[in-house]
Amino acid sequence: MNTSLSFAKLVADGVYTVDTGFKRDCFDASYLILDEGEAAFIDVGTNYSAPRLIQTLVELGLTPAEVRYVILTHIHLDHAGGAGEMMRLCPNAQLIVHSRGVRHMIEPSALRLGAVAVYGEDAVHAAYGTLLPIDALRITEAGEGFEIPLGSRVLRCLDTPGHAKHHIAIWDAKSKGVFTGDTFGLSYREFDTEKGGYVMPTTTPIQFDPVALKDSVERIAALKPDCIFPTHFSRVDDIPKLKSLFLEQLEEMVSLAIGLKEDVQRRENLKKGLLDIYVKHLNEHGCRFTKDQIADFLEIDLELNAQGIEVWLDKLG
User: Fold this and answer.
1) Least C-beta-crowded within 10 Å: which of 27, 74, 136, 313?
2) CATH homologous superfamily of 2-239
3) Tens digit of each residue's pLDDT (9 = 90 or more) over 221-233
4) CA–CA separation, 282 vs 276, rounded Å?
């Protein structure tokens, strides 16, 4: 069945990775879960991703009316920008989102303005289009321990701050996997080696909290999952190894940041230092990219992570 799907791949029992097409191939994922004729999407990309998600349903013999839930790990626009459009297209779906994200789904103007402040008006319009509001009656708040029934499955939510205060992760006992959004970092398939997947923390503005992030990763790992499903990108295994790699880099990133707190060229030196951290670990991982290739590939991540760290440093006072 996998080979017939245009944008999706089966990655676990009833779980499909759908490439949303945002920015490039294999960058941004939506996950489609099917169980006993019921469907749920976890994260949905942008408005421009909706045709891919709907086409995947059709190719699997389903209709948008069979989508029971649209679940958001958090409300950053590469995860939630298309939520309003998907809710419009899926008339029977309920939106599941952290309580801190509800008001932004009902009225997304402030969310969009926040993105404009980071990326600029033209870039936001080109990347996300017009954000559609969602009827409050179709939104359900999810916090720690909230359970989502789907066919024979019960998806359980964890409150996982650190990347964002409005972040949840979703444990699926049937696949023994956790949908981690951005909490367990980024895992780009281009960095895969014979050692498996590589993972790196993301500190995207504006709510990076390294103490909370470490705790969230520890709690996810404590479930002893067989795999995680990060939004960037697709399934990765060997969670104990990934946890150690993640936490080691997080500690190095915090140490770098503290050392540069009063630096007059803080942004640029943060980016240089972050690159050195990633290059070191990628080399240890067996990645054959050169430093220049890594810098080019991670150009956007380096900028956003530096911005996120700076916001955190300024909050320290």
Assistant:
1) 136
2) Ribonuclease Z/Hydroxyacylglutathione hydrolase-like (3.60.15.10)
3) 999 999 999 999 9
4) 10
